[in-house]
Amino acid sequence: MDFIGGLLERLADTPLSHLIHESDVGFPAVESAHVVAITLVLGSIMIVDLRLLGLASTKTAVTSLTAEILPWTWGFFILAVVTGGLMFISQPVDYFGNTAFRVKMLLLVLAGLNMLAFHAVAWRGVAAWDRDPKPPARARLAGGISLVCWLAVIAAGRVIGFTMFPG
């Protein structure tokens, strides 16, 4: 842990960390951009997940919907990662020690693993169910897990906001 602690301390000592943390507008601007980005990530993922659950866009082929939505999702996700990284840099020691932050990171990993599992298992047979209003159970399960993970990411993010204090 001393190695990680040392890295975090050095990161906290960078000009970028000081700029974001000590500026009157730095952190609020980054945080606002992060909230917008994560909202757009969740919104675009919900469109796909609700389709996988058979609850929305049931007349649209899953492949068409994902082809249209997922490039936007990845762009929003990259923006969320960049802005989240900048927020982390502002107080890396405090974020790293924050339980809600660690839970959020774990949930992001779980969402990613769910996506990988979906593509490895359910997506392989998408041609057989692409236009079905109600996808097969494995696709619905992946959509449900995704939705729960991303809503939990949002909840954990809110908890971080109430457990991090300017230092």
Structural topology:
Elements: H1 2-12, H2 15-22, H3 26-52, H4 62-90, H5 92-96, H6 99-120, H7 126-129, H8 137-163
Helix pairs in contact: 2-4, 3-4, 3-8, 6-8
Number of strands: 0
Shape: elongated
Q: What is the count of DSSP helices, taking H or I runs of 4+ residues?
A: 8
SSE ordering: HHHHHHHH
The total domain count is 1
Give the assembly state of these chains: single chain
Features:
167 residues, mainly alpha
Q: Could you explain how this protein is built, in words?
A:
It is a single chain. This protein is mainly alpha-helical and 167 residues long. It has one domain (2-163). It is built from eight helices and no strands.
Describe, in short, the structure shown.
The protein has 167 residues and is mostly helical. It is elongated. The model has no long low-confidence stretch (mean pLDDT 96).
